[in-house]
Backbone:
């Protein structure tokens, strides 16, 4: 996993609640057996007027001029500002893959779908929870000030506006923070405990032998 | 200390606990399907790792498989590659059981696990699929995971997890005839919202739950994720044990007796503390129909589509307006005036034998309404299909004008050719009415199998209790 420490970037606001993973990356793109290349189809049904199919190049598509990601002022955005329950729905990791592949480094919302939240952390995409009030303020700012940027500092767990006028603290699980800062993958860390897993397995087999039949 | 069922399941699988409370949890059963596993197997291969315990793996192809013309194979080359990739991975690494495309026992992963006795009480069960919560109906801890976690479980047989909070949903009373587990699920989501269960493991209990069959319990636990909860579960009782006896992978002989005596302890201790409790009155519950683009946008069949003008909260009002526009519905419309174009009976929520039986009972001797262009039944597995055919249910559906299909996920998420066209309206027994879920521009109304069957023969939504009493 790529390390995440400090990121400064343009913010794009997606002003709707319950953005589900079907919206983030529709089902027809889940047929890929790769982890990459999903960014071109991020928010496909909202971003384009034509119905997307796998393998069709971006130049052949009809962008929806009314969708916020297509507005010129948000080109190059790397921080997505969302509403509550962002990423609800299916467990598809293709959703954070698509967001990261498009160029997003962080998603800021008042709450997240749990599986999406976990999946994001495993792909160097930082999901940040701020309060509804703080999010409301950020929506106001980003609509009001073209070029509005934020700095996300994982080490100090702070999101700060460019002029330093506003700063918000966020919580993150210490283990996840450690993994992100160091670009560590879980599997390597878990395999440091091989002996404990083996010992557990032995006890487990003794208690519930039918599970090992 | 008094423990909830979830506490017991968690405690019996903790390998180690970090100072901050993060647990390393041992996984007993790993269900695998073709969509969320290829990248995990690839990661394993790149890191030159082997699966920790292949006997924990039960695999099937379900999302991409066609429900017609099986003799032609999988025509879409991209779908075929994904299914072939699963074939190759299982061939290379092994599994306890694999039910590939065309196998007589193939089916939706959440139908075949319990059907084969491959998911058992007391287990931890994971799958790269959010509807893994289904298996909690058997008194196990079951939840969906992402592909990175699929790889993690393959490599280590464990998951790094934070313990969830405990929620108890008690359903008092008894359901009326024609009212089902699906209606409990939808009514609950209507009450607590799609994020109401976020961070919780939900245990369902109470007289109405105890009266449910295992099939009904699976429907309910399946939808826990639509309430935001990754895991739903129900205590083990005699119904659970009777369901499992004799199934292919269920223990036999002395091990069975030993297992049953342990399984009977899998219930929350009386007086155990829950972080949150929600109560529903099952006796007052009526059939539910969703009207919007989120499962929480739901009302009883006697209700009306909401009027955004009446909503004071601006965000909610905008949400209602967006949903009504997408769904092509007018405020205050009566649900019984809404005409449907297609009817889908299937999915991991509602494709088991009991679902098919009740739908057949509703359509028996009737005809699909002229405005309904397609009504289809997609059994959850080859074995469900065979059982239904043995009972003659296929003939009832075909005589009524339904299509009787091969098993798979089908139009629940439309990864194969079964899908809605833009603007088409569907009465669906699936679990998600998100925009585009059943096909770009498609309009989904979530209902029970009995209500979907009623809509098929009536042409509009109608209270199934009315149809059954005719």
Residues:
């Amino acid at each position: 996993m790529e390390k995440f420490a400090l990121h400064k970037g343009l913010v794009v606001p997606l002003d709707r609640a319950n953005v589900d993973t079907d919206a983030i990356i529709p089902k027809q793109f889940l047929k890929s057996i790769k982890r990459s290349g999903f960014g071109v189809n991020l928010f496909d049904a909202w971003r384009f007027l034509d119905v997307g199919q796998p393998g069709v190049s971006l130049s052949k598509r009809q962008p929806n001029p009314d969708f916020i990601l297509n507005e010129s002022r948000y080109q190059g955005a790397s921080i997505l500002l969302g509403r509550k329950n962002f990423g609800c729905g299916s467990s598809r990791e293709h959703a954070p893959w698509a967001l990261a592949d498009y160029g997003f480094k962080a998603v800021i919302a008042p709450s997240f779908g749990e599986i999406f939240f976990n999946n994001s952390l495993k792909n160097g995409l930082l999901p940040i929870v701020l309060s509804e009030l703080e999010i409301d303020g950020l929506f106001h700012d980003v609509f009001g000030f073209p070029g509005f940027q934020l700095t996300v500092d994982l080490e100090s767990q702070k999101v700060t506006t460019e002029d330093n006028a506003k700063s918000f603290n966020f919580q993150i699980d210490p283990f996840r923070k450690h993994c992100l800062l160091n670009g560590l993958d879980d599997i390597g860390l878990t395999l440091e405990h091989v002996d404990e897993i083996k010992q557990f397995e032995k006890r487990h087999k003794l208690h519930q032998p039918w599970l090992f039949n | 200390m008094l423990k909830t069922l979830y506490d017991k399941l968690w405690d019996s699988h903790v390998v180690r606990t970090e100072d901050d409370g993060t647990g390393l949890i041992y996984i007993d059963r790993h269900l695998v399907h073709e969509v969320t596993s290829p990248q995990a197997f690839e990661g394993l291969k790149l890191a030159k790792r082997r699966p920790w315990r292949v006997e924990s793996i039960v695999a099937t192809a379900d999302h991409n498989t066609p429900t017609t013309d099986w003799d032609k194979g999988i025509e879409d080359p991209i779908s075929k590659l994904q299914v072939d990739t699963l074939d190759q991975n299982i061939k290379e690494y092994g599994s306890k059981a694999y039910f590939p495309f065309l196998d007589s026992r193939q089916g939706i992963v959440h139908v075949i696990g319990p059907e084969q006795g491959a998911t058992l009480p007391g287990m931890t069960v994971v799958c790269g699929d959010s509807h893994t919560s289904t298996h909690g109906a058997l008194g196990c801890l079951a939840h969906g995971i992402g592909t990175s976690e699929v790889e993690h479980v393959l490599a280590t047989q464990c998951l790094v997890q934070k313990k969830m909070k405990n929620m108890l949903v008690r359903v008092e009373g008894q359901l009326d005839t024609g009212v089902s587990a699906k209606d409990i699920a939808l009514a609950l989501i209507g009450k607590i919202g799609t994020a109401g269960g976020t961070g919780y493991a939900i245990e369902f209990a109470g007289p109405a739950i105890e009266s449910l069959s295992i099939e009904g319990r699976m429907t309910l636990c399946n939808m826990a994720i639509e309430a935001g909860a990754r895991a739903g579960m129900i205590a083990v009782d005699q119904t659970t044990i009777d369901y499992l006896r004799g199934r292919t992978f269920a223990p036999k002989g002395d091990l069975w007796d030993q297992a049953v005596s342990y399984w009977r302890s899998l219930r929350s201790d009386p007086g155990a503390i829950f972080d949150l409790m929600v109560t529903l009155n099952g006796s007052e519950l009526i059939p539910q129909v969703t009207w919007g683009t989120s499962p929480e946008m739901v009302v009883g069949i006697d209700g009306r589509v909401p009027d955004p003008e009446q909503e004071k909260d601006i965000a909610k009002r905008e949400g209602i307006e967006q949903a009504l526009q997408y769904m092509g519905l007018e405020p205050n419309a009566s649900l019984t005036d809404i005409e449907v174009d297609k009817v889908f009976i299937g999915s991991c929520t509602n494709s088991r034998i009991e679902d098919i039986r009740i739908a057949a009972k509703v359509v028996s001797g009737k005809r699909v309404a002229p405005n309904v262009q397609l009504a289809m039944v997609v059994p959850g597995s080859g074995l469900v299909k065979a059982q239904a055919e043995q009972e003659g249910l296929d003939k009832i559906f075909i005589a009524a004008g339904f299509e009787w299909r091969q098993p798979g996920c089908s139009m629940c998420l439309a990864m194969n050719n079964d899908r809605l066209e833009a603007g088409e309206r569907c009465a669906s027994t699936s679990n998600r009415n998100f925009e585009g879920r059943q096909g770009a521009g498609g309009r989904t109304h979530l209902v029970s199998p009995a209500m979907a069957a009623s809509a098929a023969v009536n042409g509009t939504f109608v209270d199934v209790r009315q149809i059954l009493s005719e």
Observations:
- Chain B touches chain A through 78 residues (CB under 8 Å).
- The CA atoms of residues 339 and 470 of chain B lie 21 Å apart.
